[in-house]
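User: Quick sanity check before I run a bigger batch. Here is a single chain. Can you write out its predicted 3D structure?
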Amino acid sequence: LALGRLELRRGNDDLAEKHLQDALKDSPKKGAILLELGRLYERQGKLKKALDCYRRALEEAYPQSL
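Assistant: Done. Predicted structure follows.
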């Protein structure tokens, strides 16, 4: 997650996405990773993917509310 955030700040979208996708595979808690991926996709104009990431992050944070 930290490497993904760093690359996002540097503007290296491809590398940031790779690190964040790798983190998704390895982490039992995915909310923060999904939030960062959502921000990345939103910045790239990939709104459907961004909304999906945001929705999944919210479902993890509030599983019974949604």
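The helical segments are 2-10, 13-26, 31-43, 47-61.

User: Great, the batch can go ahead then.
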